[in-house]
Structures are given as structure tokens and as C-alpha cells.
């Protein structure tokens, strides 16, 4: 039995992986109910924080959300929007990053949450 969010999410991922690999006939028609699970959202937020990415088009930073103590409220709001299927993606900020051998490649930076 998993003891924390990370372990529970990893257990879910392993279960889905094994189920998919057992038979080519197995089809997942909806994984939407897995997305808004509390443990999945908290693990996703942990990974976003660890990445320490740049702000998106809304200029909101991860540090800003954390410093204001808005993490739980943000994830609760996101969970409700996902559950009710009313969540809409926000525009992505595009930047060109240099490639090691010259030239650039586009990178899309999503908003943390708005």
C-alpha cells in the first residue's frame, strides 16, 4: 500500500502500464477521472515546483503562488474545473532557445494556473 502522493501516483502509473501491456486488446476509453485525483494533482504540482520554470503569458511565478500560500486553493479550483470538465487551457508563451550546434528551437511555456 502506498504511503504518500508520490508512491500512490507511481502505483497508479504502474497499474495502468501493466494493464496496457497485458493485452493489445485493452483500451482505455477514459482516463479523465484519474487526472483530477487529489494525489495526482499534488504530485504534478510537486514536479512543477521542482522544475522551477519561467512564468507564462500571465507573468505568474511558482514562487509567487507558494509565497502567498495559494497552492491548496489553486489545486482545489483546478480539481473542480477538471471534475466539471470546464477547465480551458491558457495561451502558451513562446520563446526561441538556442540549440547546441547553432540555430534555435521554439519552446512553449505554459501558465502555472490562472
Question: Short description, anyone?
Answer:
The chain has 114 residues and is mainly α. 48% of the residues lie in helices and 11% in strands.
Percent of residues in helices comes to 40-55%
- Strand-residue fraction? 5-15%
The low-pLDDT segments are none
The helix/strand series, from N terminus to C terminus, equals HHHHHEE
Strand segment tally: 2
Number of helices: 5
The Cα radius of gyration reads 17 Å
The overall pLDDT average reads 90
Quaternary state of the chains: single chain
List the keywords.
two-stranded antiparallel ribbon, 11% strand, 2 strands, 5 helices, 114 residues, mainly alpha
Task: Describe the overall structure.
- The chain has 114 residues and is mainly alpha-helical.
- It has a domain at 33-109.
- It has five helices and two strands.
- The protein has a two-stranded antiparallel sheet.
- The longest helix has 18 residues, at 5-22.
- The protein starts with a helix and ends in a 5-residue tail after the last strand.
Amino acid at each position: 500500500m502506498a504511503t504518500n502522493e508520490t508512491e500512490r501516483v507511481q502505483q497508479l502509473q504502474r497499474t495502468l502500464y501493466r494493464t496496457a501491456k497485458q493485452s493489445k486488446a485493452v483500451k482505455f476509453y477514459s482516463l479523465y477521472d484519474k487526472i483530477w485525483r487529489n494525489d495526482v494533482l499534488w504530485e504534478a504540482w510537486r514536479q512543477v515546483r521542482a522544475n522551477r520554470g519561467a512564468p507564462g503569458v500571465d507573468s505568474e511565478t511558482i514562487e509567487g503562488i507558494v509565497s502567498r500560500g495559494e497552492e491548496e486553493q489553486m489545486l482545489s479550483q483546478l480539481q473542480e474545473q477538471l471534475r466539471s470538465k470546464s477547465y480551458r487551457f491558457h495561451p502558451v508563451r513562446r520563446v526561441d532557445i538556442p540549440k547546441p550546434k547553432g540555430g534555435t528551437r521554439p519552446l512553449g511555456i505554459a501558465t502555472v494556473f490562472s
